[in-house]
Design goal:
Layout: H1 2-19, E1 55-56, E2 62-63, H2 65-75, E3 92-93, H3 95-104, H4 106-117, H5 120-143, H6 147-171, H7 191-199, H8 209-214, H9 219-223, H10 227-231, H11 240-256, H12 264-270, H13 272-284, H14 286-296, H15 298-309, H16 320-326, H17 333-345, H18 347-357, H19 363-389, H20 396-417, H21 423-450
Antiparallel strand pairs: 1-2, 1-3
Protein name: Bifunctional apoptosis regulator
GO molecular function: ubiquitin protein ligase activity; zinc ion binding
Organism: Sparus aurata (Gilthead sea bream)
Length: 457
């Protein structure tokens, strides 16, 4: 009975509901549509435009990637442009937010990206910002290398020890690589030293060794010899080319007062500070260094260098005395033209050609120099390519002027500090730059070729 009454009441309620007009239930919160989304919600607080490559900081604020890069480059601070809270690590692009803005504002995003790519200043800032992040990542990776980092430090320490041992071995007299006549005045030469000087002129000079020994020609008598004395007995140097070679060398030792250096080690012993300066300067600025030799060391170094790298095409005398005489002649206009082209475009090739000519004298050292010049040429080419691709070739004159000022200031500082630097330290720097600099340049070339977009212009 009660059950029947409950069923009837439920039927009445259902019937009443059916008789009433239907009611539409409104949900507590309606689903938003894309038309309700405003651009302000996806705008950058720096440029007040739609976010392009939105980057989220640790504080939660979002900015355009290029806006954040411009802010970082101008302020040099790792902090939020809005709330000034420092970010941790390197900010990354918010992929979810980027995809959302790309779908909602496709045309605007495409237009803004084209404007960003066309602006060289923004491109440089983005590259600098990315380079900062890459360097930060490398430093963190280095901190966690563990055993690899330890062995790298051990290798560096062993390299330093090897350089010091090499310097000690060569500076202690164990290996005598230079003639003492390069520092002894000619007027004090003994007859034996005069004969030794004559032997260094070449195999052709052996023909006239006996007359010099019989006459006991010392340094003072050697300085008084002229063309007539050499032609007449007892010397009897009737070969005109031989006589001219002896007279040319006599003029050199009269000018210098000592025997001129004939290889790298003799040049280093006679010009310790100058050799170290040239070694570093040829790496940093070969054009300025060659210009320096032209101004201040023309006959002694520049002329032999030019004749070696750009030999005369006509009337080439391949004999030793002919080569010696040719190195003292004024270059022809063809030689000057070839030299200037290489000087402007391929300065390191000039150094490589000069080292190649000295392979018979410096076997391994010349090879180290040739390899180093190849690496430096690649680095210079990469630098010019970056200037061209980044549309910053117009800044080349400013960069050249800054480089010139930097080299001149460093050279002036070197000239002042050189007398106070111990010789042992200079020798360490010399052999490090000569033999271990190619190893460092190999790493730089690999970085340039593997990650050219993250390198500084």
């Amino acid at each position: 009975m009660l059950h029947q009454m409950e069923w009837d009441s439920s039927d009445d309620g259902l019937g009443a509901g059916m008789d009433d007009p239907p009611q539409i239930l409104e949900p507590a919160q309606s689903k938003p549509s894309t038309t309700d989304i405003s651009e302000h919600e996806f705008s950058c607080h720096c440029c007040y435009d739609i976010l392009v490559n939105p980057t989220t900081l640790t504080c939660g604020h979002n900015f355009c990637r290029h806006c954040l890069a411009l802010w970082w480059e101008s302020s040099h601070k790792n902090e939020c442009p809005e709330c000034r809270e420092k970010w941790e690590g390197f900010p990354k692009i918010n992929i979810l937010l980027r995809d959302a803005t790309d779908k909602l504002f496709t045309e605007v995003i495409q237009r803004r990206r084209e404007e960003i790519q066309a602006n060289p200043k923004i491109s440089r800032s983005l590259l600098a910002f990315q380079r900062y992040g890459d360097n930060l990542g490398r430093s963190r990776t280095t901190q966690h290398k563990g055993a690899g980092f330890f062995f790298s430090g051990v290798l560096t320490a062993l390299t330093c020890v090897a350089v010091m041992v090499l310097v000690y071995h060569w500076s202690s007299g164990v290996v005598d690589q230079h003639d003492p006549l390069i520092s002894k005045p000619v007027s004090r030469w003994t007859p034996e030293e005069v004969v030794s000087w004559l032997d260094h002129l070449g195999p052709w000079a052996q023909l006239y060794r006996e007359p010099f020994q019989q006459e006991n020609v010392n340094g003072r008598l050697l300085l008084m010899l002229g063309d007539e004395e050499l032609l007449k007995p007892p010397y009897n140097i009737e070969n005109q080319a031989h006589r001219r070679a002896v007279l040319a060398e006599l003029d050199r030792i009269k000018t210098l007062g000592v025997k001129p250096p004939q290889n790298l080690w003799e040049y280093k012993a006679a010009n310790a500070g100058k050799s170290l300066f040239l070694l570093y300067a040829l790496k940093r600025s070969p054009r300025l260094t060659l210009f320096y030799l032209y101004l201040f060391d023309y006959s002694e170094t520049f002329l032999p260098f030019l004749h070696t790298c750009c030999p005369a095409i006509a009337n080439i005398d391949h004999s030793l005395e002919g080569s010696f005489l040719n190195s003292q002649l004024e270059p022809s206009w063809r030689q000057w033209a070839e030299f200037l082209v290489k000087y402007l475009l391929l300065p390191y090739q000039l150094i490589a050609e000069f080292a190649w000519d000295w392979l018979a004298v410096h076997y391994w050292t010349s090879r180290f120099i040739i390899v180093n010049t190849m690496l430096l040429s690649v680095l210079e080419g990469c630098a010019l390519w970056r200037l061209w691709t980044r549309a910053t070739i117009r800044s080349l004159p400013d960069k050249m002027w800054n480089h010139l000022w930097k080299m001149l200031s460093q050279g002036f500082a070197f000239a002042i500090m050189w007398p106070f630097v111990p010789q042992f330290v200079c020798n360490c720097l010399f052999y490090w730059a000569l033999y271990f600099s190619p190893i460092i340049n190999i790493d730089l070339v690999v970085q340039q070729l593997m990650h050219p977009e993250t390198q500084a212009p």
